[in-house]
Amino acid sequence: MQTPRLLLAAAAWLPIATAACSKPAEPPPPTEPAQPEAPAEPGVAAEPEKPARHPALGAFQPLPEEMGSPDNPVTPEKITLGRMLYFDARLSKNHDVSCNSCHGLDTYGVDSKPTSSGHKGQLGGRNAPTVYNAGGHLSQFWDGRAKDLEEQAKGPPLNPIEMAMADAAAVEKVLTSIPGYEPLFKAAFPGEEKPITFDNMAKAIGAFERKLLTPSKWDDYLKGNDDALNDAEKAGFAAFIDAGCQACHSGPYVGGGLYQKLGLIKPWPNQKDQGRFDVTKNEGEKMMFKVSSLRNIEKTAPYFHDGSEASLDNAIKMMASHQSGKELDAAAIASIKTFLATLTGPLPEDYIKQPALPESGPDTPKPDPS
């Protein structure tokens, strides 16, 4: 907000004395009559002043055009390869689970289940978070155990509950056995003696995911278009701020930028999963989880790390109570929910279209349900 400038003006009349006594004082010049103001142009109304914007808007920024990484520059060749690998279920032991199985790109990056099913129908222990807009977060996974998308992409293939591959060498064997992947890896990683590697698989998937962005009307509003949100949506933002939500949910991703204790003010009902503590063994990080991004939140139920809440209304109520110590009434919850809907952006339909995958070769391992 710009600080108003005050303009101070002062004028002083200086009396003029006449030393000559032989002449009478000259009369002052006649005063010209004031000119009337020009009438307003017929049919043109004066432009109303725009209402002041909420002072808390400074804590938020529009989405970037790309969630880049200095360690893994995004190129068209990596994107092409990464898109295929994202949809390829042959990276799982039984050829029945892909990245898209748990993070459906046509369903806002989730599978809408409390926890996802993997190899042999086994259920994971945590809710699958959306991959949309995730590349800008401070880390990946609920407990932050992966520093970025590329490191995260290495986890599911080797997880015995998810894709159940034996090790990185087993994944590389599958990729090498599919003839169509060799030229794609060479194009994505030019000059490398052995381009088909487990690390490069992860880099290609990460590059593809770094452009999974869903800008919305909220971004238009942040860029200065006051008409992008209606009065009810602006009031919902004010209610969001009044409830203290912005303490954790701010920045371009409206979250995703820090870890916070779940049950900060009131103990959280489910204490079985201790979050960051399970990774760091630091007593001070018990019940600490990465703060969720609220982008597309109305499309990504169920909520929380355990997928225990299907209702967005209840999720809002619980977070206000346990994190801010505020008991919201139905009107406040509905208002906040109206604002949250402005964070839903359209899916990039062309970008996420499922590609044709290269055919298996004679040496490609067969599906293994064991």
Structure, briefly:
By secondary structure, this protein is mostly helical. The protein has twelve helices and two strands, in the order H-H-H-H-H-H-H-H-H-E-H-E-H-H.
Characterise this structure:
This protein has 370 residues and is mainly α. The protein folds into two domains: 76-209, Cytochrome c-like domain (Cytochrome Bc1 Complex, Chain D, domain 2, Orthogonal Bundle); 215-343, Cytochrome c-like domain (Cytochrome Bc1 Complex, Chain D, domain 2, Orthogonal Bundle). Helix content is 27%, strand content 2%. The chain contains twelve helices and two strands. The chain has helices at residues 76-87, 99-102, 149-152, 155-158, 168-177, 181-188, 198-209, 217-222, 231-242, 277-280, 312-324, 330-340; strands spanning 259-261, 288-290. A two-stranded antiparallel ribbon has the order 1-2. α1 (76-87) crosses α6 (181-188), α1 (76-87) packs across α7 and α9 crosses α12 (330-340). The longest helix is centred in the C-terminal third of the chain and has 13 residues, at 312-324. It is globular, with a radius of gyration of 30 Å. It starts with 75 loop residues before the first helix and ends in a 30-residue tail after the last helix.
Write the layout of secondary structure elements.
Elements lengths: L75 H12 L11 H4 L46 H4 L2 H4 L9 H10 L3 H8 L9 H12 L7 H6 L8 H12 L16 E3 L15 H4 L7 E3 L21 H13 L5 H11 L30
Antiparallel strand pairs: 1-2
Helix pairs in contact: 1-6, 1-7, 9-12, 11-12
Domain count: 2
Radius of gyration equals 30 Å
> Strands of the largest sheet, in order across it?
1-2
Within the CATH hierarchy, at the fold level, what is the topology of the largest domain?
Cytochrome Bc1 Complex, Chain D, domain 2
Q: Strand pairing plus helix content: what structural class? A: mainly alpha
What is the count of DSSP helices, taking H or I runs of 4+ residues? Answer: 12
Average pLDDT, to the nearest integer?
A: 90
CATH homologous group name of the largest domain? Cytochrome c-like domain
In terms of DSSP E residues, the strand content is under 5%
Give the CA-based shape: globular
